[in-house]
């Protein structure tokens, strides 16, 4: 048996009726859909490092381990650690869990790290990294003994079957916002963007239409084709002078390409991220300074990450057909271990919580079914180390086309919900709608998990609710009480 056949057997190609071409295409699709994190995560986390607690404002440089670094250097260090943390987590997902899911530092979780923990609560970024590290260790321990699997299997059935559709609407909403098709509006919060006034909206809609038509015709790689052609079109329109720089191209990238040249861009990355590691070590020494604050931060990171990851795993697994008849993911502890290891390692080198990405749905839709898809994603992240600045040249609106297409596809999950049963209708309905309206998978899960035992009891079917499901509901209520108390300033540190 040759190496190719051995590898195919290891990943179970025959079992999942797939092949190298399909898995590779799926991996490229997932990577393109989530590559924005290489740009966005450093932009968000650098704000935590550049925040001056004494002055109460962001600075243009920061001192780390006795050396001063400017904002550009910090962003580049964070881009490198974002890639490295993703690679480690993805390798565990590919080789241990054998699932086609991509992982990276989580959106929302990085913003929580920066703006809630560091800026609002006043926790030093070094200590926040230590909290993420402890959260990761706890996750590894809970996953190893099967506790995380047990908790996830406690989710009510209507919640499990509604998660996919909820994430679908969430993806649609995020994608349309980035494409400027949905924009902010004072009276109604959101409204339809003006395509005649917005080049981004006009080009995005053209790219989306092309992608949807290619998908409808069954063209393999339709999402990749849509992303690449839309990005190239934005650059061409900019280079020929139809639109101004930084409109259809990422801010600053046009000037870098035209003034410094592409080779100069590729050679400008600072790969030395050891200052962030020593910042993490410094954070470990701060734990005893205020242990109560530290425990609260660990608890909050733990709670949000746990349910975000659980919701994402269930949602993307539903699209892939991995769930059993009870809506559970067999051997769920294996993919959970991937995010636990990624989170622990990522904190040590300087980034926030690592989690499974909902953008994995794009690769799954292209046919990815095994860990080889994830292995391809990891390989592309590794290659991205060589071209970190070039990744920044892909406009976000182009990558978000994938979210809209996949969001539409994921709506098929509503067909599995029994809408004639009040317990299913209310629980599933809240799960689906709360996710996009609060831009949080965890909040959508909370709405479903809290409402299910209450509705079941109101129907006289309280015996159908287990003690574990009541405990989950009460835990969510307690979490929100603490969260809102901190947000309202009722709890001050």
What is the straight-line distance between the termini?
Answer: 63 Å
- Sheet of most strands: 2 strands, antiparallel
**Overall pLDDT score:** 86
Q: How many individual helices?
A: 23
Radius of gyration: 22 Å
- Binned, the helix content reads 55-70%
Uncertain parts: none
Strand composition percent: 5-15%
Helix and strand composition category: mainly alpha
**Domain module tally:** 1
Strand order of the largest sheet: 1-2
* Shape type: globular
Question: Can you count the beta strands?
Answer: 8
Task: Draw up the topology in text.
Blueprint: H1 3-11, H2 20-34, H3 37-50, E1 51-52, E2 57-58, E3 61-64, E4 67-70, H4 71-97, E5 103-105, H5 109-120, H6 125-144, H7 147-153, H8 157-178, E6 182-185, E7 189-192, H9 199-216, H10 222-239, H11 253-260, H12 262-266, H13 274-286, H14 291-320, H15 333-349, E8 354-356, H16 360-365, H17 371-384, H18 388-391, H19 396-399, H20 401-410, H21 422-438, H22 441-458, H23 467-487
Antiparallel strand pairs: 1-2, 3-4, 5-8, 6-7
Helix pairs in contact: 2-17, 3-4, 3-5, 4-15, 4-17, 6-13, 6-14, 6-15, 8-14, 8-20, 8-21, 8-22, 9-10, 21-22, 22-23
């Amino acid at each position: 048996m040759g190496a190719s056949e051995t590898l195919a057997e290891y990943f179970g190609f025959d079992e999942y009726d797939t092949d190298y071409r399909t898995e590779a295409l799926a991996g490229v699709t997932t990577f393109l859909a989530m590559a924005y994190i290489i740009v966005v995560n450093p932009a968000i986390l650098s704000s935590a490092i550049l925040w001056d607690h004494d002055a109460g404002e962001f600075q243009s440089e920061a001192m780390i381990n006795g050396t001063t670094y400017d904002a550009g250097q910090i962003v580049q260090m964070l881009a490198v650690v974002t890639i490295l943390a993703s690679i480690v987590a993805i390798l565990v997902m590919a080789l241990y869990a054998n699932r086609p899911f991509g992982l990276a530092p989580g959106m929302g979780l990085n913003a929580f790290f920066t703006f809630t923990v560091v800026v609002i609560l006043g926790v030093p970024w070094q200590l926040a990294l230590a909290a993420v590290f402890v959260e990761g260790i706890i996750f590894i321990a809970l996953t190893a003994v099967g506790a995380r699997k047990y908790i996830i299997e406690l989710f009510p059935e209507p919640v499990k079957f509604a998660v996919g559709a909820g994430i679908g609407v969430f993806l649609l909403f995020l994608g349309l916002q980035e494409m400027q098709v949905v924009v902010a509006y004072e009276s109604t919060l959101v409204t339809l963007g003006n395509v005649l006034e917005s080049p981004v909206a006009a080009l995005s809609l053209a790219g989306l239409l092309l992608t949807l038509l290619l998908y409808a015709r069954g063209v393999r790689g339709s999402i990749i084709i849509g992303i690449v052609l839309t990005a190239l079109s934005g650059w061409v329109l900019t280079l020929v002078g139809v639109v101004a720089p930084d409109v259809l191209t990422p801010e600053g990238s046009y000037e870098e390409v035209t003034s410094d040249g592409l080779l100069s861009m590729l050679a400008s990355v600072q790969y030395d991220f050891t200052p962030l590691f020593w910042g993490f070590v410094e954070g470990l020494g701060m734990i005893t300074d205020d242990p109560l604050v530290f425990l609260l931060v660990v608890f909050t990171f733990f709670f949000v990450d746990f349910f975000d990851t659980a919701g994402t795993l269930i949602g993307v697994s539903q699209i892939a057909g991995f769930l059993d008849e009870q809506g559970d993911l067999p051997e769920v502890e294996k993919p959970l271990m991937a995010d636990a290891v990624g989170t622990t390692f990522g904190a040590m080198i300087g980034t926030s919580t690592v989690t499974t990405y909902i953008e994995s749905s794009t690769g799954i839709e292209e046919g990815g079914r095994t860990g080889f898809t994830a292995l391809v994603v990891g390989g592309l992240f590794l290659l991205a180390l060589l071209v970190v600045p070039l990744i920044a040249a892909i406009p976000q609106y182009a990558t978000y086309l994938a979210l809209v297409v996949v969001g539409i596809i994921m709506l098929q999950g509503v067909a599995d919900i029994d809408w004639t049963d009040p317990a299913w209708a209310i629980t599933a309905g809240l799960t689906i709608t709360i996710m996009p309206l609060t831009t949080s998978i965890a909040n959508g899960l909370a709405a479903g998990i809290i409402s299910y035992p209450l509705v079941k009891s109101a129907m006289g079917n309280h015996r159908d609710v287990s003690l574990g499901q009541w405990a989950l509901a009460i835990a969510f209520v307690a979490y929100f009480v603490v969260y809102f108390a901190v947000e309202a300033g009722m709890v001050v540190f």
